[in-house]
Amino acid sequence: MTLTLPTPASPLKIGTRGSPLALAQAYETRDRLARAFALEPTAFDIVVIKTTGDNRAMIDADRPLKEIGNKGLFTKEIEEALTSGAIDIAVHSMKDMPTEQPEGLTLDCYLPREDVRDAFVSPAIGAIADLPEGTVVGTSSLRRRAQLLHRRPDLQVVEFRGNVQTRLQKLQDGVASATFLAMAGLRRLNMAEAVPATPIAPEDMLPAVAQGAIGIERRRHDTAAAAMLEAIHHAETSLRLAAERAFLAALDGSCETPIAALAELSGGTLQLRGEVLRPDGSEALTDAQSCAIEDGAALGHHMGQALRARAGQGFFTL
Ligand SMILES: NCc1[nH]cc(CCC(=O)O)c1CC(=O)O
User: Fold this and answer.
1) Which of 17, 144, 171, 297 could bridge across to 22 with cysteines, CB 3.0–4.6 Å?
2) CATH topology classification for 12-112+213-233
3) For 244-311, which CATH class?
4) Residue 96 known to be catalytic
5) DSSP three-state, residue 15
């Protein structure tokens, strides 16, 4: 098969959300494709798509996202554009992606993973341990809230939403004394140095499934897109995400459940750590196991099922 490459007259349409981070991820994807095929940036169109999750009227309210209905909140409109042909590929934060894709769409291309860690962000305080009793911490992540309260039940957690810039402004305004951000987002925005952020070791706060990974979705039968994406695919990231996403799927995890997992490769082995917590942080269940690097999905599946059995009925409800 000969591959017909995009040209300025018929550019490859790259769909993305419009936040600064989403745009940075779309540009990174475009630049990697351009380099792989020696194309000019003009052979690509970045198409910004507004999603339900970007709708200010809904998001600026103080309601937790889970009450608005989380599933596919940031992906539905983008996937519709993909299906209709309005775009050719879609760039996503894998952390926000459901474990199954709609009929006709495939998500099997990953870029090299960024820093997986969470960052503790505070203008005045250096670490969680140094927070005075009763301090207000902002986060809208159920996982981070549960992990924080598990270690520090005395703290007060308030809802904290919006993009990176919005959240930093809220800290400046004194809405909370500290928050958490993914290191990956800060690095992709070139903000890691400009923000009072301290990376947290995974031992202290296990990251979200797929944190720091970018995935690129396409129409299943679009062989041209498939061939192009193959050239920028990162196999190691794929092996790690296979384990973490199987873990999430086995737990039936929606974004409404505090779940964390991290797979790492070393010396021909895959190590998977997983954690589930009660939403109020009163209990955390963890597991850690190793397997051959190609068996991550099976390990993730079994670890997820085992933790679900240990958790039992009612574990995830307050
Ligand atoms: N849920 C929002 C979201 N989705 C991906 C990232 C950061 C980048 C990444 O983890 O890949 C963020 C923001 C954050 O958690 O700070």
Assistant:
1) 17
2) D-Maltodextrin-Binding Protein; domain 2 (3.40.190)
3) alpha beta
4) yes
5) strand
